[in-house]
Amino acid sequence: MYIPKFAQETDWQVISNFIRENGFGILINTDESGVPHATHLPMTLKEKTPGKFVLEGHIAKVNPQWNYFSRAKALAIFSGAHSYISSSWYEKSKIPTWNYMAVHIHGAIRILEDEEVINGLRTLMEKYEAASEKPVHITDIDDKTLQNNVKAIVGFEIEVEEVNATYKLSQNKNTTDYNSVISHLKKSGDENALKVAAEMEARKTDKQQ
C-alpha cells in the first residue's frame, strides 16, 4: 500500500503488538487467472525462530481460495481504529481526511500438516477463550469431533517477508490543528474516534505538548 513518509511506522514492536491486538484480518491471494480471492479470518502472529515471524490461520476446506496457496505470495491485512477528520477542526485548511491505522504483511504461504493445525487451534483458543467466564480448552473437545473439524479446514502459515504499516494520525498538521483533532475526536464519544485520539496523544512530540 502507498504510505506517506510522515505516516510510516517501522518499529516492529509496535507493529507486532498491533497485529496481536487486531488479529481478525483479511487473507488475499490470486488464482491462476490473476483473480484475487479474499477471506476474513483470525490470524496468529508467532515467532517461529528468533527474529523469524509467521502468521498462522485456517480456512474452510470448501473455500476454493486454499487451492491457490502455492501459486504466489499472500497478503494479510490488519486494520485498527479509524475516524473521519473534519476540515472544520483546522485553523485554515478546508480539506477533510481520514485517520487510520493498518498493517499489510506479504509472504510465501505454506499449507500446514494436521498436527500443526491442531497446535494452531490450541493457540487460537487459548488466546480468545482467556477472557471467557468459563474458558473452553481444546482438550475439552472429544477426539472424534476435533478430528472431523480438522478434516474440514486447511491450516496455513505465512512467512513475514515484507511489512508495510501506516499510522496516519495527522502528523503532517501543525500543533494547533493536531491538538484540535484530538479534542474533537474525544468529544464525539465514538469508540473508534476515542482510540484514534488516544493513539495521537501517545504520539505527541515535545513540541505538541
Features of this protein?
single chain, 209 residues, alpha+beta, Pnp Oxidase, Chain A, five-stranded antiparallel sheet, four-stranded antiparallel sheet, 9 strands, 29% helix, 33% strand, elongated
> What structural category characterises the helix and strand content?
alpha+beta
Q: What proportion strand?
A: 25-35%
Secondary-structure element order, N to C: HEEEEEEEHHEEHH
Mean pLDDT: 95
Poorly predicted runs of 5 or more residues: none
| Multimer state | single chain
CATH topology: Pnp Oxidase, Chain A
Instruction: Provide the CATH architecture.
Output: Roll
Describe the global form. elongated
What percent of residues adopt helix (DSSP H or I)? 25-40%
- Give the termini separation: 31 Å
For the largest beta sheet, what order do the strands appear in spatially? 2-1-5-6-9
Question: In CATH's first tier, which class applies?
Answer: Mainly Beta
Number of strands: 9
Helix segment count?
5
Number of domains: 1
Protein name: FMN-binding negative transcriptional regulator
Organism: Chitinophaga silvatica
Pfam families: FMN_bind_2 (PF04299)
